[in-house]
Amino acid sequence: MRYLYLHGFGSSPDSQKARFFAEQFAALGRRIECPRLVPGPFSEMTLSGQLEVIQAAAGDGEVCLIGSSMGGYLASIFAAQCPGQVARLALMAPAFGFPDRWIRQLAPGEFERWRDDGFYPVYNYAAEREDRIGFGLYEDAAAYDDFPQIGCPALIHHGRRDETVPVSYSEEFAALCPSAELRLLESDHRLTDVLPQIWSDVRAFFGFER
Question: What are the distances in angstroms from CA 172 to CA 5, 13, 156, 164?
C-alpha cells in the first residue's frame, strides 16, 4: 500500500500540513509521499494536469490518499476515476463545488475580466508572492463533477468556521456518499490548530497501530 498527501491550491510539499503528516508517518516507520501537483508554471495549472501528477505518483498499485482543500477535491476525483485503485480517502476541508464556488466569490465583473484577459491575480503561497492563474483552470475544471461519486471509505474533517469552503459542501457530499463520514471541528479552513485530533482519527481510519 502506498500513501500520498495532496496539497491544496497554491501550496506545496513543504506546507505545514504536509510536513506534519510526513513526521507522523515517519514516527510509525511508514512513508507518505507528497508530489508537487503543479510542477510547471503556476499560471498553467489545471485539474487535469494535477490528476496526471497524482496518477504518476500512485503508479498501478493500491493507494490511500490524504488531501487538503483542492488536494481533497482532486483526491475524490481520482478515486471516482480509479475506483479499484484507491482504498481510502482522508479529506480535510475538500474544495468541492469548484469552479462554480470560486466564481461566486469573485466581485462583479471579475469573471469577465479573467475570461477576457486570460489570467487572474492570486497569491501563490508556495512561492510566497503574487502570481496569476490562467482562465484554462476554469475551463478545464468545468468538466468535473462538483461532488465526485466514490465507492471507497472516506473520512472528512471540516472546520465549522471555514469561510473559504463552507462546511455545507462537505455536508452535501457526505449526504450523497454512503461510504463517507464527516467530522466537524471548531476550526477554520486551515485546520492547523486541530492537526493532532485529525491525525488520531486518520491513524485509526487507516488501521495503523499506536
Answer: 24, 29, 12, 16
